[in-house]
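Q: I'm building a small set of examples for a reading group on sequence design. Run inverse folding on the following structure and report the sequence directly after it, with nothing in between.
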């Protein structure tokens, strides 16, 4: 299937890389950021353009959620299949007379971090069974974990991912602020972080919880609150402890 990937950010980069690693041909990459497109084009030897979107059978729109609708209007090929990669948008956000779909990889992407694409869950939705089957087969070349999913299910997958990934990473960033403020090497905490994540491969998250809040250790909780000088850190600390206490009441 002749394919064009639209975008030059983290998701677009990794889709290009995953396609190339699995010998899936990409006809063109398209976007507005010439510098980033040039980097991707050079690394993977794929033609790119910022102003001439060529005809293709499949267009995959891998841009920010806020840009999907406007970008979708650039596609004039009514015989094409067009899929976005968002977990939080319905297919109907795509504006055009072409066939519409969703091609959602559930992962956090950074250009500088290598990934095992075969482990990434892909969630597929299309307007008809033929297109759904085509996208399912395409994703299955990349990953061993592919499912169909309608928007109602997919938006809850995305919500769960925000809790499991984005919020957790934000807490890592806040923890580093505390360690930096006391001149503590954040690398001290990497084995702890690794073990915390590794543990939930074997235990339910609720069963894996440790710490003063789940133990009801008010002395330690009070000590920590006295140590915290940043108002935002204190709000987060108190909110998280209250949530833990309620879960284990």
């Amino acid at each position: 299937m002749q394919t064009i990937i639209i975008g030059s950010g983290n998701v677009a980069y990794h889709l290009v890389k995953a396609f190339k690693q699995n010998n899936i041909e990409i006809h063109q990459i398209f976007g507005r950021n010439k510098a980033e497109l040039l980097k991707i084009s050079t690394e993977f030897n794929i033609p790119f353009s910022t102003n001439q979107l060529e005809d293709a059978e499949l267009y995959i729109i891998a841009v920010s959620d806020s840009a999907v609708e406007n970008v979708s209007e650039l596609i004039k090929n009514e015989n094409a299949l067009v899929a976005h990669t968002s977990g939080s948008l319905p297919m109907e956000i795509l504006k055009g007379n072409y066939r519409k779909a969703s091609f959602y990889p559930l992962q956090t992407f950074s250009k500088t971090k290598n990934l095992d694409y075969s482990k990434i869950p892909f969630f597929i939705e299309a307007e008809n069974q033929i297109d759904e089957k085509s996208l399912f087969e395409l994703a299955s070349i990349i990953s061993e974990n592919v499912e169909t999913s309608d928007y109602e299910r997919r938006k809850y997958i995305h919500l769960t991912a925000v809790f499991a990934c984005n919020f957790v990473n934000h807490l890592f960033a806040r923890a580093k602020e505390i360690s930096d403020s006391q001149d503590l090497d954040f690398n001290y905490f990497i084995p702890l972080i690794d073990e915390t994540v590794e543990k939930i491969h074997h235990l339910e998250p609720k069963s894996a919880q440790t710490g003063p809040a789940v133990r009801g250790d008010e002395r330690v909780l009070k000590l920590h609150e006295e140590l915290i000088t940043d108002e935002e850190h204190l709000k987060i600390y108190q909110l998280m402890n209250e949530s833990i206490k309620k879960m284990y009441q």
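The domain at 3-149 is CATH 3.40.50.720 (Rossmann fold).
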